[in-house]
Structures are given as structure tokens and as C-alpha cells.
């Protein structure tokens, strides 16, 4: 591509890896949403923080927008480049930089995959506890950008809780060293937490210092079959009161059916309407007995109809596949996704109203629910029928999302629990954030990105 702006970029960053092949532009210019036609100017693959800074300074001089890019597993359009932006892919910045045994921290570059972080922590006898199904392809930089949560938030919290420090290249090209790994630091605003969840709109994370912890004790994994929607929170309350939960994940018969069709095995002979994958500490006979007692107490109440208990790690993985395999199993239906959150105490009322709303709104569409009940997060996947055109499908789903956003506002919830706002949820940001809050966010963005080069159009216009 003969573009003078790219010639200037090559001069500004000698040796920079640049891609302009049409196949590369399409690959790097989109995420998992697949709603927008990729149209980036080019793909830059920096190998160092210095190169990232030089790219950002070039972007300010040339007034070219930048889209930071990690594993591109996002579901809200946060990594989409559809308007001539330069994609800054961080896949070459994928190394472990340091391990500190005293502080129990791991310092990494942003392009490292979450799975590689898990393995690096395990090699030191420790755990980085943030975890979800896309662990093999998502990157730490993307996890930071969306404050990713996953399947063990009930025990460990979101990404935010595990970031001891960040290095951020701001939209103005300055390199900020945020918090420096300190445990206590009462010296003004903690700018580290502004970058976490900012979706690349304030700058590009070029280094992250991650907290590590002890591995959890041996766990017991159960699959529970439930008779109705109404007993779900009762089972959760019973298990939480008796056990030290590591995870409590929910799916419906529809989700299970798709995963089984995708090759998973069914531990039950009968089909039940609702299922839970529960995982809890089981280091000794007392904890194992407590798990069985919780199960039996719920059975006596009629809240659980059947159950399966993993007897090995392999069986536990098979049970987890029934929950974690849903996203891949329904991908061919091009689902419209909503990722919502309410307080756990508000979950029963919200669930009932949301189920009624979606049942009435989508009489012809299949709706697949699953989620992290233990932390108030639900994933709603509306599957597109083969005989419904893209435009009509998206229009109807968008109208229903407006109603869902109003419902969340009434329950004090969020239209995005862990996927971010990006392009997809931008019209509904005001259901979660007040006008005053959005004004403050705009002001912060203006300070750190004065020329508006960082991921413009995401979060808000």
C-alpha cells in the first residue's frame, strides 16, 4: 500500500512489522462480533514499549485513529477497526518479563495469552486465578481492557483485583508507570484502575504486574439438575452457606442440547430444564461430606432432581465442558449476545422479569441462557434463524435490548458485566451510567487522549 502516512510511520518506527495484505486487514480488523466490515488502514505489530510510544506519537501527528488489539475474542466490538484506523496488534509483546517470589507477582507483556500466564504461575507453584473458556486465545491486555471476570469471580473477583501495577502509553504518547506493584499506596488517584476496563480508550497497556496466590485446595465438581427457574437461587444459597464455593455456573436445557450436539457427553438419562455446575473446596473428608450433605438437603426439598459428582480430573473437565462449550457450540447461529449483571440479592426478581420479557419478545427465536449466577452475571444468546435476514434480526434484537436496558436500570444493574461496552452496547451506556458519570468519563478521556486517537467511537462518541 502506497500511503504517505504509512511511509511516515516506517520512518518514525524503523523496523516496525506492518501488514497491509487484504487478508490480514480482515483478520485483525474485527473481533468475535462479526457485525462490522473490517477496514483498517494497516496492522502494526510493535515489539516493545518504545515502538508503541512511537506509534502513538505518529498517530497524533498524522491524526490517525488507533485500535489496540489482543486476542480479538471480544464480544462488544471493542477491537473492531472499520473506519481506516491503524490496528496496533500486541501479539509480538507476549513474554513473561519477571517473577518476584517475595511479592508473588508475575510481570508480563500485554500480548501473552491467559493460558500462558496460568502455566507460568503454576511453574512457580502459584496461581493466577482469573479464568474463562477463551483462556487459550485471549490476551492479558484484553483482559485488563475489559476487566474480565469469568467462571471463578465468586471466589477470586475480576481482573481488577489481580493487577498490582500497569505501564500505560497514553493517547498523548506518555509512558505512565501506575502503582509500581505496591500493596499500599495512598498517594492520590490510583490511575491504574482507570486503565482497567477502559477498553483501550485511554491508552495502550504495555506491561502488567499480576498478583499470584496459592493454588486452591482440591475441589469437587458437581453437575446438578434443577426442576425450575425459581429454585436456582435457593440451591445457590444452600451451597454457599455450607461450602466454600469456587464456582457456581448455570445453564439451561437449550444450552446443554447444543453442547451435546457439539460432541459432549450427557451424564444424565433424562432431560431437565435447568443445570448448575458447582465447584467447591474438598480437601478432606469433612469438606467432601459437606458437599454431599448440601446436595442431599436440596434433594429433600425437591430443588435438585439429579446430580453427577466428578470422580477424577478428567470427569470434572467433562462436566465443565457442558458449561464452557456453549459459546463455541452456538457460534454457527451468529447469536446476538447480551452480557448483563445485577446484584446477587436482586437476581431472583430480575431473572423472573427478564425471562418473561425475552419469552414474549422472541417468540420465533431460540434464547440460550447461561452465566455466573454466583456473581450476578448472566449471558443471553439469541440465535439467528436461517430464514431471518441479518438486518431484520439485528433490528429486532436491538429493540429488545432497549427494553432489557430499562429493566436493568430499574434493578440497578449493568448492560455489560464483563464484555465491555465497545460498539455494541454504546447506545445503552446511559442505562448503567448517569449523565454526570459519562461527562466525567469524557473529561478523563480528553486529558489522557487529547486528540482522540485512542479507539474512537468505543464506549461513547
From TrEMBL:
It comes from the Bacteria. It comes from Luteimonas salinilitoris. PANTHER family: D-2-HYDROXYGLUTARATE DEHYDROGENASE, MITOCHONDRIAL. The lineage of its organism: Bacteria, Pseudomonadati, Pseudomonadota, Gammaproteobacteria, Lysobacterales. SUPFAM superfamilies: FAD-binding/transporter-associated domain-like, FAD-linked oxidases, C-terminal domain. Its cofactor is FAD. Keywords: FAD, Flavoprotein, Oxidoreductase. Belongs to the FAD-binding oxidoreductase/transferase type 4 family. Pfam families: FAD-oxidase_C, FAD_binding_4. The keyword ATP-binding does not apply. InterPro entries: FAD-bd_oxidored_4_C, FAD-bd_PCMH, FAD-bd_PCMH-like_sf, FAD-bd_PCMH_sub1, FAD-bd_PCMH_sub2, FAD-linked_Oxase-like_C, FAD-oxidored/transferase_4, Oxid_FAD_bind_N. The keyword Flavoprotein applies. Residues 36-215 form the FAD-binding PCMH-type domain. This is FAD-binding oxidoreductase. Coiled coil: none annotated.
Amino acid at each position: 500500500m502506497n500511503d504517505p502516512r504509512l511511509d511516515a510511520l516506517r520512518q518514525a518506527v524503523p523496523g516496525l512489522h506492518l501488514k497491509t495484505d487484504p487478508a490480514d486487514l480482515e483478520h485483525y480488523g474485527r473481533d468475535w462480533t462479526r457485525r462490522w466490515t473490517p477496514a483498517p488502514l494497516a496492522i502494526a505489530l510493535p515489539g516493545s514499549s518504545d515502538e508503541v510510544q512511537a506509534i502513538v506519537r505518529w498517530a497524533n501527528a498524522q491524526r490517525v485513529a488507533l485500535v489496540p488489539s489482543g486476542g480479538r475474542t471480544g464480544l462488544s466490538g471493542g477491537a473492531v477497526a472499520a473506519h481506516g484506523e491503524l490496528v496496533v496488534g500486541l501479539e509480538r509483546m507476549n513474554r513473561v518479563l519477571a517473577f518476584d517470589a517475595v511479592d508473588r507477582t508475575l510481570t508480563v507483556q500485554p500480548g501473552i495469552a491467559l493460558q500462558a500466564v496460568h502455566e507460568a504461575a503454576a511453574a512457580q507453584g502459584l496461581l493466577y486465578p482469573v479464568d474463562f473458556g477463551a483462556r487459550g486465545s485471549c490476551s492479558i491486555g484484553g483482559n485488563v481492557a475489559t476487566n474480565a471476570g469469568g467462571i471463578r469471580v465468586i471466589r477470586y473477583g475480576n481482573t481488577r483485583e489481580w493487577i498490582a501495577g500497569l505501564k500505560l502509553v497514553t493517547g498523548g504518547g506518555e509512558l505512565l508507570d501506575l502503582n509500581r506493584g505496591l500493596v499500599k499506596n495512598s498517594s492520590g488517584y490510583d490511575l491504574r484502575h482507570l486503565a482497567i476496563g477502559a477498553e483501550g480508550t485511554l491508552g495502550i497497556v504495555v506491561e502488567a504486574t499480576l498478583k499470584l496466590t496459592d493454588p486452591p485446595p482440591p475441589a469437587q465438581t458437581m453437575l446438578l439438575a434443577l426442576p425450575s427457574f425459581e429454585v436456582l437461587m435457593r440451591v445457590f444459597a444452600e451451597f454457599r452457606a455450607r461450602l466454600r464455593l469456587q464456582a457456581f455456573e448455570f445453564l439451561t436445557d437449550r444450552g446443554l442440547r447444543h453442547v451435546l450436539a457439539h460432541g459432549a457427553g450427557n451424564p444424565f438419562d433424562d432431560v431437565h430444564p435447568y443445570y448448575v455446575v458447582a465447584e467447591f473446596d474438598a480437601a478432606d473428608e469433612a469438606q467432601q461430606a459437606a458437599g454431599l450433605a448440601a446436595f442431599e438437603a436440596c434433594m429433600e426439598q425437591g430443588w435438585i432432581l439429579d446430580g453427577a459428582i466428578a470422580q477424577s480430573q478428567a470427569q470434572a473437565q467433562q462436566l465443565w465442558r457442558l458449561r464452557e462449550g456453549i459459546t463455541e457450540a452456538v457460534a454457527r447461529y451468529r447469536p446476538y449476545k447480551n452480557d448483563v449483571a445485577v446484584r446477587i440479592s436482586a437476581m431472583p426478581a430480575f431473572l423472573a422479569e427478564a425471562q418473561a420479557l425475552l419469552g414474549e419478545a422472541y417468540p420465533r427465536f431460540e434464547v440460550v441462557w447461561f452465566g455466573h449466577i454466583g456473581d450476578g452475571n448472566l449471558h443471553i444468546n439469541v440465535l439467528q434463524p436461517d430464514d431471518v435476514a441479518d438486518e431484520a434480526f439485528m433490528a429486532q434484537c436491538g429493540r429488545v435490548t432497549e427494553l432489557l436496558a430499562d429493566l436493568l436500570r430499574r434493578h440497578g444493574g449493568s448492560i455489560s458485566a464483563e464484555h465491555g461496552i465497545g460498539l455494541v452496547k454504546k447506545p445503552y451506556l446511559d442505562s448503567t451510567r448517569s449523565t454526570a458519570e459519562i461527562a466525567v468519563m469524557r473529561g478523563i478521556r480528553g486529558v489522557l487522549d487529547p486528540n482522540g486517537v485512542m479507539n474512537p467511537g468505543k464506549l461513547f462518541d
